[in-house]
Amino acid sequence: MNKLRFDELSLSPEMQRAIADMGFEEASPIQTEAIPVIMQGRDVIGQAQTGTGKTAAFGIPAIESIDPKDRRVQTLILCPTRELAVQVSEEISRLIKYKNGISVVPIYGGQSYDRQLRALKQGVQIVIGTPGRVMDHIERGTLQLDAVKKIILDEADEMLDMGFREDIEFVLTKIPAERQTIFFSATMSKPIMELTKKYQRDPQLVKVVHQTLTVTNIEQVYYEVRNNMKMEVLSRIIDMYNLKSLIVFCNTKRMVDELVSNLQARGYFADGLHGDMNQTQRTNVMAKFKAGTLEILVATDVAARGIDVEDLEAVFNYDLPQDEEAYVHRIGRTGRAGKSGKAFSFVSGRDIYKLKDIMRFTNAKIKLAAVPSYEDVAEIKTNLFLDQIKEVIQQGKLEKHIARIERLLTEDFTSLEIAAALLKMNLKEAKAQAASEEMKGPREGYNRLFVTMGKKDRIHPKDIIEALTENTSIPSSKIGDIDLYDKFSFVEVAKEYTSEVLDRLGRTTLLGKPVSFEKAQSKNAMGGEKERDRDGGGRDRDRDGGGSRGGFEDRPRGGGGFRERNDRERNSRFGKREKTRRW
Ligand code: AMP
């Protein structure tokens, strides 16, 4: 189906700006269908699963119709669970970022009434709540609904399944008759249809229909991965299969940028492709990818449309696509010309429902795979390395090397010992390389933070110091050493300021580019899941680069070119380091 660009949807400039900040490139199918109809003021039944962009599909038109001068509740959104209410409220908060005078509050069971009462008293135009708690507030007289113009039931089928029918009906009867009633539901069950008949006026059904498409030749698997572990799992899979030509799909431009810098920091040859890049930049990236100097292309659907690459080994859905057709288009880029390809999808939380839709639509069996452990990766890499040795032996032309090794044989070493020593040296070199990649611990009383910008971004130590001192209360005397690399940097900050820095600068912009400050991993934590678990918190702290690529990465890939590859790899992975000692 044709998807619309957001600038084709007659949205306010403030809304366009917020959407651009969120990194959305184009409206998802359900947004394309639903936004114009909701904006016309009609009652709507939207059939959409979670993950399709449904929140913005009803959130955008709801926000656009709010009168900021009127502080009364104008839109009420009901959600089945507190988690969903919070999620919807967060998405709406991002969408109202540039709208002055509009506020939103989630109200749900389990949270103290006081906080909710304070928010409601101050005046708020958008209320998102679970049915029970909303009903309580209505009964206590603390939620006034006489100015409500829109009522939205999100995941209506789920609410009915959870036994909220009476509460929902109670709320619906308290909303003025002159209103717009919108239902979103993944299924169109009989009880839903009864509810719409009773409470909606001439509703328009909005859903995304598509033909079934099938994909053959492609091995499709999915991994259940929490968002903060996706990067780690991606690199393990790439390493394990020794992938050299792949596309990783993300849903937003922001995610593309973030993933590219993380992959580069880990030493992969990766670059991104998205709608904000000009033609020359795109052509350059594509030329490098086709020539094989770039191994990983990270792209949005829009950017990948129309690019033609043969011989892809694998496609990753780092984010599951918002519609099933996009899934087929994405993975169809591998397994061309009768070759077999691999498609890996990351599924977190409720994505599983979307994956089930995809399976239904594509008639495909997408198998759950276990996330490879470090031992699995190491074992497979060892096997790959041994296979390569076999290959080199079969290719022959080893006379010169044999003659050199014979020198040791005369000294009474066995060939097995010599081979083992070479293997060990290879391992050691890779380890030393990883270790040299600045895994040292911070000085006493300080934490070492990883910054996702480096010299290539033209960043100077003073930029990092300014970012810290201007946005947090840290004085410059509490900032330690700063190490700049090509694509990332490290900065030491006094422990007492670390959490403030991470809170304020976890994600920000510097020199006009997105940047994040994160806690760096210690040397011992190189690839150590246990270590990560111990320091808890759930942030992705694996970006110091190097760790996960220890092992055999310096092996010659394919035939000759060992040295060249090695140098290239080293240059790209470490760049030239520039150190600023601060005291
Ligand atoms: P939802 O279906 O509302 O749960 O949305 C799933 C995720 O998709 C959320 O993280 C949204 O921020 C994101 N999203 C919504 N619309 C778009 C879009 N047009 N492009 C990319 N991501 C989107």
Automatic annotation (TrEMBL):
Give the molecular function GO annotations: ATP binding; hydrolase activity; RNA helicase activity; RNA strand annealing activity
SUPFAM superfamilies in UniProt: P-loop containing nucleoside triphosphate hydrolases
Look up the EC number in the record and give it. Answer: 3.6.4.13
InterPro entries on file:
DbpA/CsdA_RNA-bd_dom (IPR005580), DEAD/DEAH_box_helicase_dom (IPR011545), DEAD/DEAH_RhlB (IPR044742), DEAD_box_RNA_helicases (IPR050547), DeaD_dimer (IPR057325), Helicase_ATP-bd (IPR014001), Helicase_C-like (IPR001650), Nucleotide-bd_a/b_plait_sf (IPR012677)
What this protein catalyses is: ATP + H2O = ADP + phosphate + H(+)
Q: Where is the Helicase C-terminal domain?
A: 217-378
Official protein name in the record: DEAD-box ATP-dependent RNA helicase RhpA
Organism of this sequence: Adhaeribacter aerolatus
